[in-house]
Amino acid sequence: MKKNMILVIILALLVVNIVLTAITMFSITSTNKKTAAVVADIATALSIEMAADEEAGGEEAVDVAISDLATYPIPDQMTIQLRDSVGENADGKSHYCVTTVVLSMNTLDPDYKTYGATISEKEGLIKNEINEVIGAYTLEEAKEKQASGELKNEVTARLQALYDSKFIYDVSFSSIMFQ
């Protein structure tokens, strides 16, 4: 008799387990479908924005083979005064960025023939653009932007705007120190 009672309890627990599993599956499945729809909508919106940026002349990745690469190292080490910190990060000291810059140029770009050979003549303008970009940041901001790669992207964009061309496709800081 006790064995039958235990079997009935086990059977009841199995039925309850099956019912709860079915309820969980239906609720998770419907929630999962809604989440997938939201993710799909976000992905669609992002791809639309990226397509709009590309049509408007936004950034596009350029892969240049090493054989099509020309570099121009800015001959002098640059010392750039950074913007003073304000608020709780202010220490009352002047901070500097000391760096050596190398420009990477795409020799297949049509503007390379026009500007590449005479880039040393415009060195002062190039240094000015680099000074303006880096000097606009505080020590903490500059370190953060350097770590994330935003600093070199901003310098590259400014130089491309200066020449109104993308023949300079990358800027590298062969050495950079913040003090």
Features:
2 domains; Tetrahydropterin Synthase, Chain A; four-stranded antiparallel sheet; 55% helix; alpha+beta; 5 helices; 179 residues
Describe this structure in words.
With 179 residues, this protein is α+β, with helices and mostly antiparallel strands. The protein is 55% helix and 17% strand. It has two domains: 1-60; 66-178, Tetrahydropterin Synthase, Chain A (2-Layer Sandwich), CATH 3.30.479.30. It has helices at residues 2-55, 110-116, 123-135, 139-148, 150-163; strands spanning 69-73, 78-81, 96-106, 168-178. Strands 1, 2, 3 and 4 form a four-stranded antiparallel β-sheet that branches. Helix 3 (123-135) runs antiparallel to helix 5 (150-163). The longest helix is centred in the N-terminal third of the chain and has 54 residues, at 2-55. It is elongated. The termini are far apart.
The number of helical elements comes to: 5
Q: Give the distance, in angstroms, between the N- and C-terminal Cα atoms.
A: 86 Å
> Which residues sit in consecutive blocks of at least 5 with pLDDT less than 50?
none
Q: What is the CATH topology classification name of the largest domain?
A: Tetrahydropterin Synthase, Chain A
- The run of helices and strands is HEEEHHHHE
Estimated structural class: alpha+beta
CATH superfamily of the largest domain: Band 7 domain
- C-alpha geometry: elongated
The largest sheet is:
4 strands, antiparallel
Please give the share of residues in helix: 40-55%
Number of domains: 2
- Beta-strand share of residues: 15-25%
Task: Provide the gyration radius in Å.
Answer: 30 Å
From the coordinates shown, what is the CATH architecture of the largest domain? 2-Layer Sandwich
Based on DSSP secondary structure assignment, what is the total number of beta strands?
A: 4
The average pLDDT is 85
What is the name of the CATH class of the largest domain?
Alpha Beta
